[in-house]
Specification:
Blueprint (H helix, E strand, L loop, with lengths): L1 H5 L20 H9 L5 E4 L2 H4 L3 H14 L3 E4 L13 H38 L15 H9 L5 H8 L3 H17 L1
């Protein structure tokens, strides 16, 4: 935002999505593309702010520059300024830089996902539990469970008596059964 404000871009012309750049299914990005018209100028802070998917970045760049006829300036990479070097050599250099940076952006996304998976695995190995803690069993669970196991009531009736969804009762019954067998 600071970099764009330094270029004196009006707030109404700044589009910002607060979600991952893994794809281009972002509401503000779609709105931006709808509003852009031939000879408009699009400022992007860095190529990874545009997206994180190599093929899609190249495709969107083509759509924006060729199909829509707009110019793009990537603020942290002066070689990616489509206003300059519209000759064959300038276009060639911009394309090479775009491909390299798009690759780097997607590679970084892959690395982030791998580090995230490693962190989750390490946390689980340390015994960290994810998700919200389970609710305590209702006071009548054991007696209702016993009646259900003895086939005196149906599973649906047992779940209703315990104030649980049917799937929750089945899950908690299985966990309870495993715990009883372990003892």
């Amino acid at each position: 935002m600071i970099a764009l404000r330094e270029k004196n871009i009006p707030e109404k012309n700044i589009y910002m999505d607060k979600q991952s750049g893994k794809d281009f299914e972002r509401p503000q990005y779609k709105k931006l593309v709808r509003h852009m018209k031939k000879d408009d100028l699009l400022y992007i802070k860095s190529i990874d702010r545009l997206g994180r998917n190599y093929g899609e970045i190249l495709e969107q760049w083509r759509i924006l520059t060729k199909d829509k006829g707009i110019d793009i300036v990537v603020l942290d990479m002066p070689l990616l300024d489509t206003r300059r070097g519209k000759d064959l050599m300038g276009t060639f250099l911009a394309d090479i830089v775009l491909q390299v940076l798009s690759f780097v952006a997607e590679n970084e996304r892959t690395n982030i996902r791998q580090r995230q998976a490693e962190g989750i695995a390490a946390a689980k190995a340390r015994g960290v539990r994810f998700g919200r803690p389970p609710r305590p069993l209702p006071g009548n669970f054991r007696s209702v469970y016993r009646r259900w196991k003895e086939r005196k009531i149906t599973c649906t009736a047992a779940a209703r008596e315990c104030g649980m969804a049917l799937s929750t009762f089945r899950y908690r019954a299985a966990v309870y059964e495993d715990a009883v067998q372990q003892c």
